[in-house]
């Protein structure tokens, strides 16, 4: 019996003994929220790739959506004496004491894609995208491509009240403000999902004379846009021509739609938050350059002209 | 060595062995920081596991503790944000509510003769629902008293911290051991776990003991919720999901018989440490999926159930041989 128990205890150790990582210049702990969405899974993959490319030994801890697991992971990283910590916090509150411990141990902490409510001297910097800016980029694309003709826009919003939905709506409205030929005629939530996006688009089409009054669709994420494209096709119209389609996120599937001419543009929410984070970290540790408290990631615009299939091939294995 | 000590010895042996293996791969595992972390990070689990030990010793189960922890943490946060009450008053109020909540479940179990599983399952949904009614957002706790409590720690040589909540867990375990082995209540709990009919014959007040056990579990879950709120300085209704199962696992890995009547509070302490050690190891390694924690705990649970079965079988066999010896 004892032998059996010992065996059980040893199983967890066995795999790691063989997979032990080689010693390298930097050891960085990464506490990730979980893998609840395709984008987050891609972020994890890209972070691992970026670390490998730079020869950084990355300690990865998946918190399974629990803050207590993230705090435990941070404390273990500190105990282990890592050189730096990346943290994608699951909630904004409750990080003060563990961040103070990291500060005491002189381990810099960099926040990824979300921020915390704690005082900003407790972390080195935060790398996030600007959600309002994403909406603005999408709006600008439409302004530039519609020209002077009148254009009625329908909008598929994200989950009501969620911060991306509010910010992406705001940014888009800012961009089209002052262009009186562009007008949002209908705006409803599609809950960030493909099925809801399709349903709501169907109702838009019915309400607007079978779609004849609609010139463009703005969706707060690609999934809703992909659902809406289906609805437009079923209504007998050509998405991308009869109705322009612009959305945000740049998930792999939207590139297939871009390639087929069914979508027109997407704004990337890059899963590569770790790249800029590692850049800032290396500059800080090697040359003592203190980064700004906020590093904004690029919100890149992709259109049909950007060789969509090539991008699709690059993205399809990231775990989206 | 008595056979009822065997599971406890197995637990201690596994813990020492696992620690040695961890240490061989990562020498930093044997630092005061890791030891301090084990106590601090598992404080809320440990405190509620003490209550769970009494419940399981009596042959019952309490599925409500995770939700009660979440309820307490959000209750404290909402009250501190919305009223001028001192945290100590809020703590007392929270503990009174959770203790009554536990006592009520105990009363239903005893007087309506309902299985604890169903009653505490209802309690679990009720407490979680109440937490959501209070707030669906995560509410930060900002209070100078919290800062004071958090600054109370003993800095061990090597940089590790023995925090207030870690120390509180140790204290609860010590009191738990004393209550189980040195008090009338503890003796009654063991007797109840051995069988209600026998316990009644021994003169145990079944109703009072049952209500007392679930009230204690509710109290400790409330205390654990307060510790959780100190740990994260926030209240969140989605926190501590599944902690009841972790607590049950810690109790069983600690060598307590799931059917009741046999086990030790001290074993539960080692059970909690083993679970914390697995998590620490996986984070130190940094390449393993964190779901390995669940797999290893699953394997350990299975081993312990087999071990318990084996011991029961052995003692049964010994009893029959003795009978035969007397007969001839």
TrEMBL record, chain A:
InterPro entries: Peripla_BP_I (IPR028082), SBP_2_dom (IPR025997), YtfQ_transport (IPR054837)
Coiled coil segments of this chain: none
Any Pfam family the entry gives: Peripla_BP_4
Residues of the signal peptide: 1-22
Keyword annotations of the record: Signal
SUPFAM superfamilies recorded: Periplasmic binding protein-like I
Sequence ranges assigned to domain Periplasmic binding protein in this UniProt record: 29-277
Compartments where located: Cell envelope
PANTHER family, sorted: D-ALLOSE-BINDING PERIPLASMIC PROTEIN-RELATED, GALACTOFURANOSE-BINDING PROTEIN YTFQ
Similarity section: Belongs to the bacterial solute-binding protein 2 family.
Protein name from the UniProt record: Galactofuranose ABC transporter, galactofuranose-binding protein YtfQ
From TrEMBL, chain B:
Membrane-protein topology: Multi-pass membrane protein
Keywords: Cell membrane, Membrane, Transmembrane, Transmembrane helix
Bilayer-spanning residue ranges: 6-26, 38-57, 63-81, 88-112, 118-142, 162-181, 213-231, 264-284, 290-307
UniProt-listed CDD domains: TM_PBP1_transp_AraH_like
Chief location: membrane
Localisation: Cell membrane
Pfam families: BPD_transp_2
Annotated protein name in UniProt: Galactofuranose ABC transporter, permease protein YjfF
Organism placement in taxonomy: Bacteria, Pseudomonadati, Pseudomonadota, Alphaproteobacteria, Hyphomicrobiales
